[in-house]
Write a structure and sequence with these properties.
Strand content of chain B: 15-25%
Structural class of chain B: alpha+beta
Oligomer: heterodimer
Number of strands of chain B: 13
Distance between the termini of chain A: 134 Å
Number of helices of chain B: 14
Largest sheet of chain A: 2 strands, antiparallel
Low-confidence stretches of chain A: none
Strand order of the largest sheet of chain A: 1-2
Strand content of chain A: 5-15%
Radius of gyration of chain B: 33 Å
């Protein structure tokens, strides 16, 4: 049997898909990239630019495809998937590398024990009901006892025992516990900067100081225990008994000046009342029972009896 | 400048967490910004590039006063200005933070620089590097009456010219364009889904460039491998060297920049024809926009920022098992794929080793043998 013709045909076909170049083309399959490092052929470039570019691209793509098709493949629904090798050409990142977070308490335990993470689904198969139920969320199994209309209780149960409330309380406790653990993890992760013990100490000392001043006499006459620090209070400063005349004159003039000024403190002085110092505003308010002057103008015959509810009641 | 948002709902918290840095990053979101005067060509180019880059592209509708190369001119003229960034750079940083984008294309047409586009790349919220190009000979995607590829598909990239490996400015351009056209970083790809190729080629290398041999622009320590691994380092250092070159060399550099070959960007859809063998024969049909670019100004990345940007995450165990990572002594991956190590314990003198006492294994003392013989004799006597 003459196989040379078959072999030749095979070779010819192979020739179709191979690309021969001076410098072999560099292929970075990870990026799906092919780099042709041969110098550009000037004649072909000047003759017909588009054709030249197209031919160049075709050769490069052919080499790239040859490399891609020779990669190990895996089957998938959409056809063969080629497993790409790691990238050679490195590109700069967009953001800085993520800082490695310290492992949580559970993660450390799991790592030590060799426990691997098992991914659980939202739906679970319930043998009793023969259907898929949610573990949480809408019609979730975790709320089953709270939401069902009938719950069996033991014969010797307390009459006040409400299984629905008990179940709800339990669930809320679990949530609170999880939240507490989560916060503890976060504190530990950021925690080295807060330096736990010393911050707690400062907190305690602050509360002790507040407690000591929370007595009837503001902590002034309380006996001090051994080991307690001296309470810092506001220090009152008194001027010396004998002052120079100049100083006294200066302070007196200053005081008079501020009394005369438009400063905010001084403006609190009550308005000058003419006509026998009657506070008209207050009088109107009282007489109109809070309704104002307008209501007093011819309003007495209007159906509102004086017995009715005024601000201070009708009996006055 | 941007206020820190505290998430109040689970959805907003998820959105905020999605913006956290990851080990393997998402493709760069590109913002297309138009300057004060754009013109038909730049508008068309923006539309086509956005089509290629969907869905990781955002287009700003309004025109903005933006000049990315502003601070460069500012700092040289005014001596009193502090080393603060110009307002254009500040705008870019603000937009990047707000849109969670890390790449810009700024389009502007002036009399001096017609049909100009500036590619800007960000790292960690700050500008990393910029390249300005001018567009000549633009043919829109709509003018090619051929079928187009599915948007969002990962393109095949093809670079043709040896200058992409040797000349620092083209190395920089290659890095920028790969970052621009790159899609998702994937570990496996469907072989049927390789629909389009973006081909970037240069004109023929002019002889003037060959004389001022490009290798002289790069430090002699850079081999081809290290260029591949960290290409931008070559660019960063080359620009530093260029600024410190003696006058004659500097002028030749300037001359070289004037005669840099043009960049041709073409996009084709692939047609796979069955050949006899497993690898199909590929034919290309022109699809997308056809652009001819001219390199103008550029700003190389700052060396320190670049070092941070090129940091890789530590290799995971799975990668080490695959055989990656630096060659560690006394550790290797055997044929079964297990990691094996060797422990060297040094010379041991086994005679001095103290083990457990086992009577049966002990060496007989010479006196014992005689006694046993005598006993045997006695036993025989007794039995009788």
């Amino acid at each position: 049997m003459d196989v040379t013709s078959i072999l030749d045909a095979q070779k010819a076909k192979q020739q179709n898909v191979t690309v021969e170049k001076e410098t072999p083309l560099e292929i970075d399959a990870g990026h799906l990239m092919v780099s042709d490092l041969n110098p550009i052929d000037e004649e072909s470039y000047n003759e017909n630019l588009e054709e030249h570019l197209r031919a160049l691209a075709r050769d490069g793509t052919q080499a790239l495809l040859a490399a891609l098709f020779s990669l190990p493949t895996s089957k998938s629904a959409d056809g063969p998937l080629a497993q790409l090798p790691p990238r050679t050409y490195q590109l700069p990142r967009q953001k800085a590398l993520p800082k490695p977070k310290p492992p949580t308490k559970w993660e450390r335990f799991a790592a030590a024990k060799g426990i691997s993470h098992v991914k659980r689904d939202k739906k679970e198969w319930d043998e009793e009901r023969q259907e898929w139920v949610n573990r949480w969320g809408k019609d979730g199994k975790n709320r089953r006892v709270e939401e069902q209309w009938l719950t069996e209780v033991k014969r010797n149960a307390d009459p006040d025992h409400n299984p629905q409330l008990a179940a709800r309380h339990e669930r809320k406790e679990r949530i609170a516990k999880n939240e507490k653990q989560h916060l503890a993890n976060l504190a530990r992760a950021s925690g080295s900067s807060a330096s736990g013990p010393s911050s707690r100490k400062a907190e305690l000392e602050k509360s002790i100081a507040t407690t000591r001043a929370s007595t009837a006499s503001m902590g002034k006459f309380d006996r001090k225990l051994d080991g307690e620090k001296k309470l810092r209070g506001v220090k009152r400063k008194f001027d010396p008994a004998e002052r120079s005349v100049v100083d006294e004159q200066k302070s007196a003039l200053k005081l008079i000046g501020s009394m005369d000024s438009d400063a905010r403190k001084m403006r609190k002085a009550p308005r000058e009342n003419e006509e026998g110092s009657v506070n008209a505003r207050k009088a109107i308010r009282f007489a109109s029972k809070g309704k104002g002057a307008a209501s007093m103008a011819g309003g007495e015959t209007r159906g509102k009896s004086s017995f009715a509810k005024g601000k201070k009641g009708g009996r006055r | 400048m941007l206020r820190v948002i505290k998430p109040k709902t689970a959805r907003s918290k998820r959105a905020l967490d999605a913006r956290e840095p990851k080990e393997v990053e998402d493709p760069r979101t590109v913002i297309f910004v138009k300057g004060t005067h754009t013109g038909e060509v730049v508008n068309g180019v923006f539309k086509d590039l956005m089509a290629l880059k969907r869905p990781h592209a955002v287009a700003f509708n309004k025109k903005n006063v933006i000049h990315p190369f502003d601070s460069a001119t500012n700092s040289s003229t005014t001596s009193s200005s502090a080393a603060g960034s110009s307002t254009s750079i500040a705008s870019l940083e603000f937009w990047a933070a707000k849109n969670d984008a890390s790449m810009f294309v700024v389009g502007q047409t002036t009399k001096k620089r017609p049909n100009g586009m500036t590619f800007v790349r960000m790292f960690d919220g700050r500008v990393l590097d910029m390249i300005e190009v001018g567009v000549e000979n633009y043919k829109a995607m709509a003018d090619f009456k051929t079928p187009k590829s599915t948007p969002g598909n990962k393109p095949l990239l093809h670079f043709a010219s040896e200058l992409f490996d040797t000349h620092p400015r083209f190395i920089h351009l290659k890095s920028m364009l790969i970052d621009f056209f790159n899609g998702e970083e994937v570990d496996s790809i469907s072989l049927i889904g390789l629909e389009h190729v973006i081909s970037i080629s240069l004109g023929p290398t002019p002889s003037t460039l060959n004389d001022a041999t490009s290798m002289s622009l790069l430090p002699s320590t850079y081999s081809a491998d290290s260029v591949q691994a960290n290409p931008l380092a070559a660019v960063a250092s080359a620009s530093f060297i260029a600024s410190s070159l003696p006058p004659t060399a500097a002028t030749s550099l300037a001359m070289a920049s004037a005669s840099l070959p043009k960049v041709h960007i073409r996009a084709y859809t692939t047609k796979l024809l069955s050949s006899g063998v497993r690898v199909p024969r590929v034919e290309l049909v022109p699809m997308g926009p056809a652009l001819d670019l001219v390199l103008r100004r550029s700003q190389a990345p700052d060396a320190d920022m670049l070092k941070l940007a090129m940091k890789r995450p530590k290799l995971k165990k799975t990668d080490v098992e695959k055989g990656l990572g630096k060659k560690r002594k006394n550790v290797e991956v055997d044929e079964m794929g297990d990691l094996r190590g060797r422990v060297h314990v040094g010379l041991q003198d086994l005679s001095k080793l103290k083990g457990r006492r086992m009577k049966g294994l002990q060496e007989e003392r010479p006196g014992k043998k005689q006694r046993i013989e005598e006993d045997d004799g006695d036993d025989d006597m007794d039995d009788e």
